[in-house]
From TrEMBL:
This is Enoyl-CoA hydratase domain-containing protein 3, mitochondrial. May play a role in fatty acid biosynthesis and insulin sensitivity. Keywords: Fatty acid metabolism, Lipid metabolism, Transit peptide. It holds the Pfam family ECH_1. GO terms for molecular function: hydro-lyase activity. CDD domains: crotonase-like. Belongs to the enoyl-CoA hydratase/isomerase family. The keyword Lipid metabolism applies. GO terms for biological process: fatty acid metabolic process.
Length: 269
C-alpha cells in the first residue's frame, strides 16, 4: 500500500511513510463513525494486514475530535423506515463489531493517536487498538447512558482493556475523563505534549516496525488468544507458540545475533 493523493472530501486519509501506514479520520467536526467511515477503515486495515510493506498502522484524526462515535443523525434518519430502522441499526452495530475485530485480528500493530475527544464508539476504537498515545488535551467518555442508549458495544472493548469497576463507572455515569485518568485506567499508554506528538508517534511506531514482522505477528495473535483462556490453557497455548516461534528463521537469527553482539537481520520468516 503506497501513499495516495489526498482530498479534503475523503472521510479517511491514507498515507504510508516507510513501513508505517497513517490512517486519518476526516469525517467532519465529529469524525462520526458512519457506515462509510467504518467501511473504509475496516477495509484499509484488512488490506494493510496483507501488505508486507506495512509493518505498523497508526490511526489519527483531523480536528479537535478523535471520534464522537456513531453518526446519530444517520441512525435517526432511518427511524422513518418501515421497520423503524431496525435493519439499519443492526447493520451499523454489526459493521462496528467487524471493524473492531479487524483491528484485533490484524497481524500488524495498530496505534491510536488522540489529541481531542474520543467518545462512545470513538472511545471503543481507542480501547480496541493495540496501543494508544494521547496528548494532555485528550478526553474520553462513554456517554450513551445520557441519551438513553447504553454503550453496550463500547463496553466490550472497555472491559477487556481497563479495570472493570472503572469501566462500569464510565458506562454508568457517562462522565468525561481526562488523559491522566485514562492512563491510570489503562486506556492509553502514554501522554505526550502536543508539540511533540508527531515526533513521539513516529519514533514509537518506527521502533516497533524495526522488529521481525513474523515475531510481532506471532506475539499479537498469541496475546489476544491467551487473554480469554484459563491459566493452564493459556500456558499450554503460549508454550506451543514459543516452541513454533523458536523454529522460525528470525528466532534463530535473533538469538545468534544477540550471542554474537551484532545487529539482527530479519527475513520475516
Amino acid at each position: 500500500m503506497s501513499a495516495v493523493p489526498q482530498s479534503e472530501n475523503q472521510i479517511l486519509l491514507s498515507l504510508q511513510k516507510d513501513a508505517i501506514l497513517h490512517l486519518t479520520l476526516n469525517n467532519g467536526a465529529a469524525n462520526a463513525l458512519s457506515i462509510g467511515l467504518m467501511t473504509a477503515l475496516r477495509d484499509a486495515i484488512i488490506a494493510a494486514g496483507a501488505d508486507d510493506s506495512v509493518r505498523v498502522i497508526v490511526i489519527g484524526h483531523v480536528g479537535k475530535v478523535f471520534s464522537a462515535g456513531h453518526d446519530l443523525k444517520e441512525l435517526t434518519a432511518k427511524r422513518s423506515d418501515a421497520d423503524k430502522g431496525q435493519a439499519f441499526f443492526k447493520q451499523t452495530f454489526d459493521l462496528c463489531a467487524a471493524l473492531m475485530v479487524s483491528i484485533v485480528e490484524c497481524p500488524k500493530p495498530v496505534i491510536a493517536v488522540i489529541n481531542g475527544l474520543a467518545t462512545a464508539a470513538g472511545c471503543q476504537l481507542v480501547a480496541t487498538c493495540d496501543l494508544a498515545i494521547a496528548t494532555d488535551k485528550a478526553t474520553f467518555c462513554t456517554p450513551g447512558v445520557n441519551i438513553g442508549l447504553f454503550c453496550s458495544t463500547p463496553m466490550v472493548a472497555l472491559t477487556r482493556n481497563i479495570h472493570r469497576k472503572q469501566a462500569m463507572e464510565m458506562l454508568l455515569t457517562g462522565e468525561t475523563i481526562e488523559a491522566g485518568d485514562a492512563k491510570d485506567y489503562g486506556l492509553i499508554n502514554r501522554i505526550v505534549p502536543e508539540d511533540y506528538l508527531d515526533q513521539v508517534v513516529t519514533k514509537y511506531a518506527a521502533t516497533i516496525a524495526s522488529k521481525s514482522q513474523l515475531t510481532v505477528k506471532t506475539g499479537k495473535k498469541a496475546f489476544y488468544a491467551q487473554a480469554d483462556m484459563g491459566l493452564r490453557e493459556a500456558y499450554d497455548h503460549t508454550a506451543r507458540v514459543m516452541t513454533e516461534n523458536m523454529l522460525a528463521g528470525d528466532a534463530c537469527e535473533g538469538i545468534e545475533a544477540f550471542i554474537e553482539k551484532r545487529e539482527a537481520k530479519w527475513s520475516d520468516s
